[in-house]
Amino acid sequence: MLDRNVRPAVAAVLWAIAAAWFVSAGRAGGAPVFPEAAESGDERPRTVSKTPDNSLLPPQFRKLVSLHKPLGPPQPGDWLASHEESGQTYTEYVRGRPVRAEGRRRVIYIQPLGDFSPTERKIVELTAEYMGIFFQLPVRVRGDLSLALVPQRARRKHPAWGMSQVLSTYVLSDVLKPRLPPDAVAMIALTTSDLWPGEGWNFVFGQASLADRVGVWSMHRFGDPQKNEDAFRLTLRRTLATATHETGHMFSMEHCIFYECSMCGSNSLPEADHCPLWLCPQCLAKLCYATGANPQKRFKDLIAFAKAHGLPREEEFWQKSLDALAQK
Ligand SMILES: [Zn+2]
Ligand SMILES: [Zn+2]
Which helix (H) or strand (E) holds 91? Predict the structure, then answer.
């Protein structure tokens, strides 16, 4: 979460650095990366949400449109208030030759990185199960890797907040990329350490490379799941949201600027918590194109997961979505 009290007077300068990093990283060497949440001192809206031309969607996804709430104008501090996003329709996505589950590359790998308590491990297991349902692809959890793999030059103490952080770009390029299994459509590391993506940024929840099939996300800011059952559910929900959002990026899905959707960018934990776990029709059509998922079966599996793990809002929404698909 961003702490506005410690934002220095030079925030505008930091923001300029952050924006420059984001833009250059987004275009560098054919391997764009999507950092999530960070420094932001500029409150002018940079992106206005749009309504896509839903008539260009495959017919079954058009049946879902009326269930979804268009994004309103960004509030001060929101992701779209401080980031320029052009939006990506289903048609643009298909034309862009996205990463898809094809040939032997069909498995999503989860790579635990660092130490996990038994409760955190339970969250990793449930996240693996949920990702298998969300993407309708096999998911495998790999053996742990130690954070000792990350050298001192890729670590820091946050200059104002003092907590230890690991450089997310190092994890992507030096820890994950050399270990990508030959059947991996995507490999995403999960860590309990806090992450930051480079100079000018406070932290990121996660970061993914659209072209290199690797991503990393952190549970560090998701609360203490051992406190009580509500805290466990909140940490679980946040982990599910981040895991699927980051993996969506790895299937070349860009941030959604159309509807309240799991692929919307977020600048803070409150903004991330406001995002639903579900995908809008544009993003769902992309997911099904990338993975070959059957939307009916996917909704049925999601409803069963939501029922079993205390996600009533999602259970109701996915049931409505399943019912809408059944209509002529
Ligand atoms: Zn994102
Ligand atoms: Zn969307």
Answer: helix 90-95
